Amino acid sequence: MIETLKSIDNAILLFINGLHSPFFDRFMMLMSNRFIWVPLYLALVFITYKKFGKKCFFVVLFAGLAVAMSDQLASHLVKNLVMRYRPSHNLILSPKLHIVDDYRGGLYGFASSHAANTFALAFFLSMVIPASRKLSIFLFCWASLVCYSRVYLGVHYPSDIAGGVVIGLFSASVMYMVYSRIPALKVRPQ
After folding, report:
1. Which 3 state secondary structure label does DSSP give 108?
2. Is the pTM of this model over 0.85?
3. Where are the alpha helices (DSSP H) in 109-157?
4. Which positions ≥6 away from 153 have C-beta within 8 Å?
5. Burial category of 60 from C-beta neighbours within 10 Å (exposed 0-12, middle 13-18, buried 19 and up)
6. pLDDT tens-place string over residues 116-131
7. Which domains does the chain have, with CATH numbers?
8. What residues contact 157, with CB distance under 8 A and at least 6 apart?
9. Over the stretch 22-37, which tens digit does the pLDDT of each residue have?
């Protein structure tokens, strides 16, 4: 059973990674770059300000805590416990991969920090601002695109992404439970 799952994981990875082109190589490198998203983060702060007024500080704080928690769990706990080599560092698989700009990522890949962090933010904001369906759809599309870029670049297996999504959901849920249970922080959209 486990060998079948590994085989499926490898097949999906090789299929997505095999769809390369010069345009998409540049585009996916851009999507994986965390600094390209700074304008998005600033826009999200502005949106929360428009929805919550001056009390948006608490929403931004807990969104940041959800991302920090997911990042610490994925990058420092799970990766160091599981120690699963990234596809780009797998001696058997890496020769079959299209590597862009010799970018291989760190040594270990499970679970994806990009997936954990982007989905933590998407899940948390979707729970805090449930009436904003368009924002939720946009955030989940954005997080999915970032995750897709990681598989496209050959630095994560699809199962690394799935693990990261679970960590993101867990972190967002924990922070949302804390956020929603502190009476002084009960902030509703305006």
Report:
1. strand
2. yes
3. 113-128, 133-152
4. 17, 28, 29, 32, 88, 99, 100, 103, 105
5. middle
6. 999 999 999 999 987 7
7. 2-185 (1.10.606.20)
8. 9, 10, 13, 87, 109, 110, 151
9. 999 999 999 999 889 9
* Residue whose tokens read 């420092």: 76
**Sign (positive/negative) of CA torsion 167, 171, 174, 180?**
negative
Find tokens 């990522």 and name the residue. Answer: 105
Q: Please state, in angstroms and as integers, the Cα–Cα distance from residue 63 to each residue in 45, 66, 123, 149, 187, following that order.
A: 10, 5, 9, 23, 14
Task: Please choose, from the candidates 137, 19, 10, the residue with its C-alpha nearest in 3D space to the C-alpha of residue 86.
Answer: 10
| Residue 72 token pair | 């610490």
User: CA angle, corner 23, sides to 19 and 25, nearest 5?
Assistant: 60
